[in-house]
Design goal:
13 helices, globular, seven-stranded parallel beta sheet, 351 residues, alpha/beta, Rossmann fold, 15 strands, four-stranded mixed beta sheet
Length: 351
């Protein structure tokens, strides 16, 4: 089997590449190596001689087209390359658009030009649903929860882009679905909630679960934007990769569909819950400071994952307590790597 992965040296991409390499697949990774930690992830992957790596940017149509044309026999395509932070999109909306919206269009066109009709998964985001101010929430037991929506937010909810990041990812999301309709491509969209796990160089700007654990173990300050009662459903990286596999295997049945992918209502934590988890691991109080709310921040987001369960026969296998423990211990075992990168990955904003 041959799989093409854009953004394949990032957090999710490197884990996906490693899984396929370990299964004996030929893996073609494309990444511009701009994000902190990608060089370390690439070094880790390059121990396997079945890896083919191309340092390129998905905004470079010429380089992108050459790689896709050379691999017309690809069996799967996983598109993960992206600008990943809301805060960065607000600071530089043009770059955010160029990478997320136009970059995804470039990938789709590269596939179409090469006549690649292999199953294709696009990594989208829950941010396509916007701030969701119309959804009622209330405080219960020190954290926010929906009023109604016991199973979370389903794919039937109207899209409502909020922030340049939401717009760029949402536009790409819709292009991927429409290319499936218009050109017969077997495309699928994953609107992902908070993913966490090994090889995640989290920072204040993105990857908050990993960042809290990294910062706490290195003795760095932690800022919480808002009151810390915000709730997310979280999903461990291995469970996400299982979902990718399930979608690839069922592509003929589910092409053109979007799936909300997260931990679901059984794997929900607040920011303060994570602080408590770390305090219990370290047997000490964890200092943090509260800062102003950020525009567009969802008080609650929980994925309704019943469509994925019904149509992909998938559900998370690892509960949040188990997954958080695995990540915490992995960071502790590799703390030297994070200590060397600390100055690089620290950022003035979070998520």
């Amino acid at each position: 089997m041959k799989i093409l992965i854009t953004g394949g040296a990032g957090f999710i991409g490197s884990n996906a590449a490693a899984r396929y390499l370990n299964a004996g697949a030929e893996v073609v990774v494309m990444d511009n190596l701009s994000r902190k930690g990608t060089n370390r992830n690439l070094d880790w992957l390059e121990a396997n001689n079945k890896l083919e790596f191309h340092q390129l940017d998905i905004r470079d149509t010429s380089a992108l087209n050459k790689v896709f044309a050379a691999h017309r026999d690809a069996d799967r395509v996983l598109h993960l390359a992206a600008q990943v932070a809301v805060t960065t999109s607000v600071t530089n909306p043009r770059e955010d658009f160029d990478i997320n919206a136009l970059g995804t269009f470039n990938v789709l066109e590269a596939m179409r030009a090469a006549r690649i009709f292999a199953p294709f998964i696009y990594s989208s985001t829950n941010k396509v649903y916007g701030e969701m101010t119309d959804v009622g929430f209330e405080e219960r037991n020190g954290r926010y929860g929906y009023v109604g929506y016991p199973q979370g937010i389903s794919e039937e909810r109207n899209l409502d882009f909020h922030s340049p990041y939401g717009c760029s990812k949402g536009a790409a999301d819709q292009y991927v679905i429409d290319y499936s309709r218009m050109y017969g491509m077997r495309n699928m969209v994953f609107r992902q909630s908070c993913i966490y796990g090994y090889r995640q160089f989290g920072c204040e700007d993105q990857g908050w679960v990993a960042w809290f654990m990294i910062a706490s173990q290195l003795g760095h300050a932690i800022s919480i934007y808002g009151d810390g009662k915000q709730v997310r459903d979280i999903l461990f990286i291995e469970d996400l990769l299982d979902a990718y596999d399930a979608a690839f295997e069922n592509a003929d049945k589910v092409a053109g569909k979007a799936f909300n992918i997260g931990g679901g209502p059984d794997n929900v934590i607040s920011l303060l819950d994570l602080v408590t988890f770390i305090e219990q691991k370290q047997n000490r109080a964890l200092p943090y400071k509260l800062d102003e709310w950020r525009p567009g921040d969802q008080r609650v987001y929980i994925s309704d994952i019943r469509r994925a369960a019904a149509e992909l026969n998938w559900k998370p296998k690892r509960g949040s307590a188990e997954g958080l423990g695995l990540l915490y211990n992995w960071i502790a075992q590799n703390l030297e790597m994070f200590d060397e990168a600390a100055a690089e990955i620290e950022s003035p904003a979070r998520r």
